[in-house]
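Problem: given the chain below (120 residues), write out its structure.
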Amino acid sequence: MTLDQIQLQAIERACGSRFSIINGGAGTGKTTIIRNIVERLEGEGEIVNLCAPTGKAAARLREATHHPSWTIHRMLSYNGVRFMAGSLKGETVIADESTMIDIHLMNEIMSRSPERLILV
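Solution.
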């Protein structure tokens, strides 16, 4: 698939920034952009965590990108009482369907200091 100039700019900005937001309507290529970001960052030796707020969204993301994807709760090792995951320093987190993430869950992600956070 050939990427257009806007998609290429989104990939460049996301890979070169600590925080990015990728938005667009249905069919605009957001998932294609995610797949390209993952390929590029992993090609540079970075650890990339794909996540979404629901199991269905995580499964759709996993199918579309051919990359492991989890719910945010699973990524952060929620045990029913608290989140057990340690630091995300040096790692990239890409959160799909990010408008569905509440402030408390976003705080759990941010408190683990990911190297890069990309909200889609």
